[in-house]
Amino acid sequence: MDPRSNKLYRFSLWLIRLRWLGVLCIVLVTFVSSRILEITVCEFSLYIVSAAFLLLNILYRLCLMRIKRHKDRDPTLPLRLFTNIQISLDFFVLTLLLHFSGGIENPFIVYFIFHMVMASIVLTPLESYLQASFAWSLVILLATLEYLSIIQHHPLDGFFTPGLFESRIYLFGTGLVFISTSFLVVYITNSIMMRSRRHEEAYLKANMELEKKDEIKNEYVLRITHDIKGHLAAIQSSLNVLQSKPAGSIRQDCKEFLEIATLRTATLIKFVKDLLYITQLKLSNEFRTSHFSIRDSIQKIVTDLGSQAKEKSIHIHVEIDDPVDQIFGFQLSIEELITNLLSNAIQYSDQNSVVDLLVKARNKQLLIEIKDHGQGIPDNEQELVFEEFYRGSITRTTSEGTGLGLAISKKIVQTHGGKIWVESGEGKGSKFCFTLPFDDPSQHDKSPVDPIVNDPI
Amino acid sequence: METRDILIIDDDKDLTTSLQAILEAHNFKVDTANDAETGMGKLKSRKPDLLILDVMMASDLEGHKLAHTIKRDPENKDLPILVITGMLDTMGVNIRDAFEDIKDLPFVSMMDKPFETEELLSALEQLMAGSPEA
């Protein structure tokens, strides 16, 4: 269904719901007026009209269901016709109700105005002017017929000054006010609606343009990435060819530069891959989430990082609280997050020290703490370490590291609806902590604004 | 152990040349082709034990098409193919579906460019171990 038809459909549904309430109110008001306030109203006739109104509403509901069921046909025209018929018939029923409850003397005549506002919201300006004209024609016809005694006038004795329906001045005045008010109301509502429609159109257009631009940008990133990675692949494998040459076949002074080139190429490759990963994390708002055992994941990560730890004679001390096992999330990225933090901890720890990996259950959340015994992070840098491309005073001196690792970690935690922070001080080592919800997918932070739905490969 | 015959189809001549040198240093017999047509010709004449194929060559999905053409030939249905691409871990908007169905082909592995020599060797080993032909 296109937006316009959808609007008409929802409006009809709303109108039908409102009508159930309307029927109930008419019956109640009639009952109270007649039985409690002892006003003379044609109680029986009003109940009959209410019943007819009720039946009509059931019919509307069925019609609407029928229109919706015909999916192959364009519903715009039938819906427009249907809405117009509903409003016209409502005016007719309102006129009947008015007739049986004092005619033009009844202040409930203002209900016509409410209906005109509703009609103007959803119908075209021409349609709403025609509906308004139809409404006041009905009211004037009723007043004239009652005035000329062609049909009986049912006075509201005890509520309003009787005999007003015979006063020409009153009839003329009320008619004038009614007609001018109806046109004014339709005019005002239409102008407001036109303005809001224009805004809506502009918004939709802007949104479409944004989506188009986003697509172009994605294509662009894709193209550039492919080209950069292609060049890097050729450089890396060419360097590998030289590296694999038997010892002595490359001059010692050349070997040094070959090593620098190899190392820098590796760093650049990691940088490009990290950059892509974080771009992808920013663009995605759908993850391939599943239940998995964090216990198994941690064991695997610790084994994988064993050799890196062994090189510096670092012992990884793992402690997992008993109840902690299954969690819900994107397994690959959570494993990447833990690997990242643990690998950092090993890298920045002193030789022959211990890295603690503590896994706890806190306030229905998983809390993981990774503590090293390294140099620590100065107070003024602790806020910044999670920023993209930020490299701390200690890491800046090395050519390794892309300045993206912790930014990626933060993004992964945020996407899962958790928090990440660091507790550290110069010379005291660092403790990186993060929380992840155990099981509630609805708690996930859907903050990425981009509408593109994409999950990482 | 007999020498394995590998054919590399990639439009990046520098990459095919260096890969050839690396693989030859690891006792593979290697031939290269820098476009799909030459590649198909060499595939027919040499009947390699394994094929290394780039996804994006002259056109975006040329390698993808080629992989399907090769696998349609009953003679090659068991030929192990290592598909290499620089796009594997990017947000492949249109390309991801193509990747998904290439992954479903029998005896096909995918690897992200650039890769380390060790990664390449272990991927080749795994592919050959799993294939009845090699």
In a nutshell, what does this entry contain?
Chain A has 457 residues and is of the alpha+beta class.
Structure in words:
By secondary structure, chain A is an alpha+beta fold. In chain A, 61% of the residues lie in helices and 9% in strands. Chain A contains twelve helices and seven strands. In chain A, the strands form two sheets. Chain A has a five-stranded mixed beta sheet. Chain A has a two-stranded antiparallel sheet with strand order 1-3. In chain A, strand 6 and strand 7 form a beta hairpin. In chain A, 28% of the residues are buried. Mean pLDDT of chain A is 84; it is low at 442-457. Chain B is an alpha/beta fold and 134 residues long. Chain B has a single domain (4-127), classed as Rossmann fold. Chain B is 43% helix and 20% strand. Chain B has helices spanning 13-25, 36-46, 62-72, 95-103, 117-130; strands at residues 4-9, 28-33, 50-54, 81-85, 108-112. In chain B, strands 2-1-3-4-5 form a five-stranded parallel beta sheet, sandwiched between helices.
Sequence-ordered SSE layout with sheet pairings:
The complex is a heterodimer of chains A (457) and B (134).
Chain A: H1 3-36, H2 43-69, H3 76-99, H4 111-122, H5 125-147, H6 168-243, H7 252-283, E1 290-293, H8 294-304, H9 306-311, E2 315-320, E3 326-329, H10 331-347, E4 354-362, E5 365-371, H11 379-382, H12 405-415, E6 420-424, E7 430-437
Parallel strand pairs in A: 2-4
Antiparallel strand pairs in A: 1-3, 4-5, 5-7, 6-7
Helix pairs in contact in A: 1-2, 1-3, 2-3, 3-4, 3-5, 4-5, 4-6, 5-6, 6-7, 7-12, 8-10, 10-12
Chain B: E1 4-9, H1 13-25, E2 28-33, H2 36-46, E3 50-54, H3 62-72, E4 81-85, H4 95-103, E5 108-112, H5 117-130
Parallel strand pairs in B: 1-2, 1-3, 3-4, 4-5
